[in-house]
Amino acid sequence: SASNEHGTVAATAMLAVQVPPTVSSPPTAQTTVEPDMTIFKCVASGQPMPTISWKRRLTGSPTDEQLTSGGKFFIQADNSLLITETVYEDTGTYICVASNDLAEIRMVESSAQLTVNVRPNIMTSPQNRGSMEGRALLPVSQS
Prior knowledge:
The chain has 143 residues and is mostly beta strands.
């Protein structure tokens, strides 16, 4: 405010401080077994509040795939990524992308590895065998 012998004038202004996005709680590496569910969590901060998106890079692939909710992938209200019924082919790097409208630094990424193991599977059923006492029981070869 300012004043003199002729009166007083006051003005207010709003100062908006913009802060580039940062990932304050990155996703962590996970190991799971087919067909279990997997959840990656990611928390970001900044001003304006960053939006979170997800992408993945499958093992052996040079490019990233943008993930959206649908099929086996669901982006939850808390921005976590839910993968239902993971399979071995889902093994790869999952990337949390935090972005806001700040012009200088628009996005930051943080990633975690997903390893999907496969449960053992018996391909040939065991067969009953008999032997006489004192004789060796030899394995049957499968050809």
